[in-house]
Amino acid sequence: MSAAQFIASAEAAADALLARGAPVGQRVVDAVARTRAAVGCNTNLGILLLIAPLAAALDQAARPLTAQTWHAATERVLARLDIDDARLAYRAIALANPGGLGDAPEQSVHHAPTVGLRDAMALAATRDSIARQYAEGFRDIFETGLGALREVPAASLHAATLNVFLRFLGAWPDSHIVRKHGAAVAQSVTLAARARRAQWLRTLDEAGSAAAGVPLKAWDAELKTAAINPGTSADLTVATLFVALCVAEPRHASGSRHAP
């Protein structure tokens, strides 16, 4: 897949995701259908599953909009998810046909759901980071993701995005890597991301974002050669940016940063 396909997918899916008053499940299935029509493959299922409840909550969040009011509205949206949302989300997953998708002992996406979407996601929360957002109220987005965004200079959205991605990748094994390559490979990437992020933040303070990114480009090439794609960490990063840019999330203008 190319960057152009991801951009085309975002443009195709946006209206469905942001359809005012639409149920979460309907947003997801419509966005997947439009994505397939635009690019003919699954570029963004994880992103759509994350953005749909956030977009629904955006309709309802108290104004002025802040991360706190949005987070609270997201929890209310999640609490109301029902079996119709689950049916539509399952249909969207089948249509997207993501690589590496296996079966599950309960509420498998290969069968009709018998519980609401949040309950179904909760059953997968220990093995899938996107499902965990539904179970835990998108805590990772509003706490871990936005926290990482605040650590970098306000002038550099590129560096901020990279910091969010590396923070997620270094926090826990990436779900997509686990599905495709197993837990051991995923854990090795997590440990590497943690160390590389710490080194990158030190270099960023000393040399600026352009020079700091050179070692990461080499690591990125190594991962690509091994067909290792930290796709779930990327999806979580997109969701974080969606929230941050909508609320104009502040970032530090200067000062040192420390990798937790």
Structure, explained:
The chain is mostly helical and 260 residues long. It folds into 2 domains: 1-137, no CATH class; 153-260, no CATH class. The protein contains 14 helices and no strands. The protein is globular and about 50 Å long. The model has no long low-confidence stretch (mean pLDDT 90).
Distance between the termini: 33 Å
Gyration radius, rounded:
18 Å
| Assembly state of the chains shown | single chain
Tally of strands: 0
Broad structural category: mainly alpha
The percentage of residues in β strands lies in under 5%
Report mean pLDDT, rounded to a whole number. Answer: 90
Please tell me the total number of domains. 2
Order of helices and strands: HHHHHHHHHHHHHH
**What about the largest sheet?**
none
Shape: globular
> How many helices?
14
How much helix, percentage-wise, in residues? 55-70%
Low-confidence stretches: none
Key terms:
single chain; 260 residues; mainly alpha; 69% helix; globular
Summarize the structure.
This protein is an all-alpha fold and 260 residues long. The protein has 14 helices and no strands. It has 2 domains: 1-137, no CATH class; 153-260, no CATH class.
Q: What is the topology?
A:
Layout: H1 3-17, H2 24-39, H3 45-60, H4 67-79, H5 83-96, H6 117-124, H7 129-135, H8 139-149, H9 157-171, H10 175-181, H11 183-207, H12 209-212, H13 214-225, H14 231-246
Helix pairs in contact: 1-2, 2-3, 2-5, 3-4, 3-14, 6-7, 8-9, 8-14, 9-11, 9-14, 10-11
